[in-house]
Specification:
Elements lengths: L1 H12 L11 H16 L2 E12 L4 H15 L5 E6 L2 E9 L2 H11 L7 E8 L12 H4 L2
Antiparallel strand pairs: 1-3, 1-4, 2-3
Length: 141
């Protein structure tokens, strides 16, 4: 029995080989561009407070009116309208911690009932104009 297991192990070792995948060049170029884009796009997890989800007749106008009113009350807080058919969702804030989002939600929940905290991903906007390369190789980036 042991000899039979040893023969199987030796046989498995001798079956090593190379796998080559061939396909359309345009597909590989598209995958390459996708990888490059994802490497350049830096994001950070965060949270926003959703103050409303509107649908139906005039929901677009209602969403923009709610955004305007909210911005008047809280000018320091960013307001976003997200359309996912058939809903217009109004989300506020750019919170990096869930606790901060909940604290703000508690502050506004009397004026905006039905608010909820939603996870979000924010792009990081880096200012590259002030960055000086350390070496000549870095300058090619």
């Amino acid at each position: 029995m042991a000899a039979l297991l040893m023969a199987g192990a030796v046989s498995a070792q001798t079956r090593k080989g190379k796998v080559e995948i061939t396909g359309d060049v345009q597909v590989s170029e598209l995958v390459k561009k996708h990888i490059e884009f994802n490497e350049r796009m830096r994001t950070v997890p965060g949270y926003r407070v959703q103050i409303a989800a509107l649908s139906g007749a005039n929901s677009r106008d209602q969403a923009f009116e709610l955004k305007r009113k909210f911005k008047e009350e809280y000018p320091e807080v960013e307001v976003y309208i997200v359309f996912t058919e058939p809903n217009f969702r109004i989300k506020v804030g750019d919170f990096t911690s869930k606790l901060d989002a909940y604290v703000f939600m508690q502050r506004i929940k009397d004026r905006y009932p039905g608010t909820i905290v939603k996870e979000n991903v924010y792009p990081i906007h880096l200012d590259w104009s002030n960055i000086v390369p350390e070496t000549d190789a870095d300058a090619d980036l």
